[in-house]
Amino acid sequence: MLIYSLLHLTGYDLPIEELKNFRQLHSKTPGHPEVGYTAGVETTTGPLGQGIANAVGMAIAEKTLAAQFNRPGHDIVDHYTYAFMGDGCMMEGISHEVCSLAGTLKLGKLVAFYDDNGISIDGHVEGWFTDDTAKRFEAYGWHVVRGVDGHDADAIKRAVEEARAVTDKPSLLMCKTIIGFGSPNKAGTHDSHGAPLGDAEIALTREALGWKHAPFDIPSDIYAQWDAKEAGQAKEAAWNEKFAAYAKAFPQEAAEFTRRMKGEMPSDFDAKANEFIAKLQANPAKIASRKASQNAIEAFGPLLPEFLGGSADLAPSNLTLWSGSKPINEDAAGNYIHYGVREFGMTAIANGIALHGGFLPYTSTFLMFVEYARNAVRMAALMKQRPGDGLHPRLDRSGRRRPDSPAGRAGGFPARDPEHVHLASV
Q1: Identified catalytic residue from 97, 201, 306, 343
Q2: How many domains does the chain contain in total?
Q3: What angle do CA 166, 154, 54 make, to 5 degrees?
Q4: What share of the chain has pLDDT > 90, as a percent?
Q5: How far apart are CA 187 and CA 165, in angstroms?
Q6: Would you say 140 and 99 are in contact if contact means Cβ atoms under 8 Å apart?
Q7: For residue 129, what is the domain's CATH number?
Q8: Residue 343: active-site member
Q9: pLDDT tens column, 277-294
Q10: Neighbours of 386 (CB within 10 A)
Q11: Strands across the sheet with 307-311, in order?
Q12: 327 forms bridges with which residues in the sheet?
């Protein structure tokens, strides 16, 4: 409900009636926000942990796009990526995969707020989650701001300012909060986790907080204070002016930036791609699917500067590297990501890159290993995004099928869920 309340107050097209219909069928306020369905929602986070993974992808996209297009005195790509995390996100394994990589890549414009309330659905987390989260993230290479009062706006503001001052590390803001804050009988307990407080407890909470207005009655002065439309329009106008100056100084780069952000293909792509395909059809070769994939990447890579992809530590087997590959850990303006052994994280990060725009991400792993990544593949289908996932049978280095135990062999990856109707498998 927090995101919907903020979207409503700041001026997005989300009427108060939609807040009243929270979690109701066909409302614009489903329990898990959905991109493309509710104004202002930037991703469908899905199961816990994928939101921070998407955020890492967005931060990678920002950093890489800035390196590719910004010029001295013309910083047209210059935004921060903010994400909220809870105890459940921290427990999910994907958070380790993506936060480790974020630290390695020094994503200085990624800021994560950790809502540390010590409660999950089953109760107090001490029985199943006792990590030293601050030390964990410092080990990843993050800047950690400890001891932030999550109910103190000034403390949060100071923490954000500290985070933004650190430019070579992502930042984690450790915000200590009380779940169900203000509820006399349910604050700090799992009874306020995803369940209604009930009319009697709501009345007591309103009294404890000194809130005397009727339900969904928001005073005009609060609307006025929160309304961000005018400020947003001013910032957009300032950016448009900045981009106009950029376009005057660098017309070709500006045209290319506009094309990529619109998600359009290069004007000559179809003709050149068809020429490549026609040559293959005229002289068909019996080659491994992974080699065919590399040939396609080699042919299309020079045509698509928006290509940004990689493999989960299987580049020699998946053949995701091509002659124009430049790893982003070596060249900030590069086009290749060494994801390491992080199948789930890789795929969810690619979703974030796709959502950001400006890139056409691709990933690759063995077909069997996609079971680790399957939920992120599902989320890509639900969001109708277009990351390319290359899935290959397990082979040896010569291209032959590698003898293996059943644990390493592909057992098939059928479109067995309704959500996969939006997934094209090759």
Answers
A1: 343
A2: 2
A3: 50
A4: 88
A5: 34
A6: yes
A7: 3.40.50.970
A8: yes
A9: 999 999 999 999 899 999
A10: 15
A11: 336-338, 307-311, 360-366, 388-392
A12: 336
